[in-house]
Design goal:
binds 6-O-phosphono-alpha-D-glucopyranose; 6-phospho-beta-glucosidase; hydrolase; Rossmann fold
């Protein structure tokens, strides 16, 4: 391979400067000659602003990477080597509905694995499968690196319902946990290694090592001191864990586990926030507006630190690290979303799991975990059932299947509430759900 071509779908995203920074940093070993930023007409203004910043960043860094901006996805995909996806169907307005409608029913919306996540999946999966079809036509040998949320379900759909085989899902939660722990211990992040296993936003740290020494127990003690755990993301309030619970669990939960193990407290926080500063979508809308004002500055030629206020901060490090390892056949270990293939017992072989993998030029090879610890097996399986049923609903547009998905989500209290939620959310998102509303009688 010479002269790598990367295509980023959703290139007008406020996160793009992270990706560009990551590619610039690694240029020596990962010579990306073309970066195509693709968006839709509604995103054109943002694409132009962030694209101009990307061009200034590349020029300042003095790397010969050519940035192309386009609204023509099919043209962009031609002969790509890596395709990254980071788009939001319906933009942040749709997320605001995903978060606020459930709150009216006393339910957390959670845009990735609550009722909000169900709807985000229903909107996103059909679009992602169209992208996969275009890739099959224009760049069948390319790798698809997906960070579009809900990353677990989107990756599941790509693995099971698309013709593509070279698909990897990525999230910043594992890298965020590694960095949080490093900060807590005041050491460099690369001295920390974590055995990750589970699902996207449902991943556990089974063991944590510092310079090869297993420090899980010690860390759990540190986790216990203090009101804050020290390991969270910008988008999730850092409520401390009940010490005896984590001590009994003996493994590290991820920040998203708060939604399941601290449901009432998180709900209170979100209700309160909705009254004062707005839901996270509304907070992010303001943050984004500020970021794009900064991006417009013709003197700005680096990623501004304000981007770290977004929950997805550092995702590009994970993405560039992964692309780098595939391209260079590194054989290093990274946590990614990939086909289980028996790595985690009790999860179907063809399902997506988030697990440590050896990264080679042939993609991620999952490291066998075996059984997850008994206390978490059930929840992980429950979420996997929710994910699989959601994927089926997204592909078929079948109402009853969507209702089953909504009802089995652990954040939803009953079938009745599930139906009320489903009906109101289907109506609110109708414009982005053709599979439910544009049925042709045969
Ligand atoms: C986390 C998740 C990402 C998600 C982000 C939301 O970090 O891992 O999947 O996109 O938070 O952040 P935001 O700033 O949009 O609330």
């Amino acid at each position: 391979m010479s002269g790598i071509k990367v295509v980023t779908i959703g290139g007008g995203s406020s996160y793009t400067p992270e990706l560009v920074e990551g590619l610039i940093k690694r240029y020596g070993e990962l010579p990306v000659q073309e970066l195509w930023l693709v968006d839709i007409p509604e995103g054109e203004e943002k694409l132009n602003i962030v694209g101009a910043l990307a061009k200034r960043m590349v020029e300042k860094a003095g790397v010969p990477m050519k940035i192309h901006l386009t609204l023509d996805r099919r043209q962009a995909l031609r002969d790509a080597d890596f395709v990254t996806t980071q788009f939001r169907v319906g933009l942040l307005d749709a997320r605001a509905k995903d978060e606020s409608i459930p709150l009216k029913y006393g339910v957390i919306g959670q845009e990735t694995n609550g009722p909000g996540g169900l709807f985000k999946a229903l909107r996103t999966i059909p679009v992602m499968l169209e992208i996969a079809t275009d890739m099959e036509e224009f760049c069948p040998d390319a790798w698809l690196i997906n960070f579009t949320n809900p990353a677990g379900m989107v990756t599941e759909a790509l693995l099971r319902c698309s013709p593509l085989e070279k698909v990897v899902g990525l999230c910043n939660v594992p890298i965020g946990m590694q960095m949080g722990i490093a900060k807590m211990l005041q050491v460099e992040a690369d001295r920390i290694h974590i055995d990750f296993a589970g699902l996207n936003h449902m991943v556990f740290g089974l063991n944590v090592y510092l310079d090869g020494e297993n420090i899980t127990e010690k860390l759990i003690q540190q986790f216990l001191s203090g009101e804050k755990s020290g390991v969270t993301m910008e988008n999730i309030v850092d409520l401390g864990w009940e010490p005896a619970f984590i001590e009994g669990l003996k493994i590290l939960p991820c920040p998203y586990h708060r939604y399941y193990y601290q449901t009432d407290r998180i709900l209170d926080e979100e209700m309160e926030a909705a009254k004062t500063k707005g839901t996270r979508a509304q907070v992010v809308q303001k943050l984004e507006a500020d970021l794009f004002e900064l991006y417009k500055d013709p003197d700005l030629a680096v990623k501004p630190p304000q981007l770290e206020k977004r929950g997805g901060a550092y995702y590009s490090d994970a993405a560039c690290r992964l692309i780098h390892s595939i391209y260079n056949d590194k054989g290093d270990i990274q946590p990614v979303n990939t086909k289980n293939n028996g790595a985690i017992q009790g999860i179907p072989a063809d399902s997506a799991v988030e697990v440590n993998c050896v990264i080679t030029k042939d993609g991620p090879k999952p490291i066998t975990v075996g059984e997850l610890p008994v206390p978490v097996q059930g929840l992980v399986q429950q979420i996997k059932s929710f994910e699989r049923v959601t994927v089926e609903a997204a592909v078929t547009g079948d109402y009853n299947t969507a209702l089953v998905a909504m009802t089995i989500n652990p954040l939803v209290p009953s079938d009745k509430v599930a139906k009320q939620l489903l009906d109101e959310m289907l109506e609110a998102h109708q414009a982005y759900l053709p599979q439910f509303f544009e049925k042709v009688d045969v």
